């Protein structure tokens, strides 16, 4: 099972690993696009005003531009420790036991505007680039990534659970992947889309999938695994699952 996570805008600073080695990252077929984007970000950082516009930053966030300027020589961390957003806080990989972390390292990958997708163990620096960013002189990120990232993900020979947000899933959809929609249910039975808390719920699901000793091979077995864990999960056919959580 491969669980695809979204990245987060917030990232842990620093690191204890050697500088970025693109050739050492998983899915080496993505190296050329990765290198092109790293070079573009470094060059863009030489013009802070243009970088703010392209990356949708304010002057108060110029440290993000500085990070991008230092990308080639910056220290690295495993991807699972680099991202610090709501979903990744709920996943909380640092609290896993050694055996759980080993399973998480095998199963978890993170979608990325800069790297396409990386395994949880891949060492990456802190950076700023979002799926919706438009870099001067380059095609849209979707046009860059889809021709190479799409085939790479389609070639994964195991159940794929795609928890990426819409913008990152659009970089390269995965045919046949299981997706998870989160709905909030009020006492009267009416349901609404879960917005911000959606990330926390998906983070908890990701933690469960990362650490379970089970190995579901299809959507039905995955639904069963989640239900046995006490989650209210519905399956109306196809590969889409709905997680229903109480309102509030």
From TrEMBL:
GO terms for biological process: response to hydroperoxide. NCBIfam families: PRK02101.2-1. It holds the Pfam family H2O2_YaaD. InterPro entries: YaaA. It comes from the Bacteria. It comes from Geodermatophilus pulveris. PANTHER family: PEROXIDE STRESS RESISTANCE PROTEIN YAAA, PEROXIDE STRESS RESPONSE PROTEIN YAAA. This is Peroxide stress protein YaaA. One of its GO terms (cellular component) is cytosol. The lineage of its organism: Bacteria, Bacillati, Actinomycetota, Actinomycetes, Geodermatophilales.
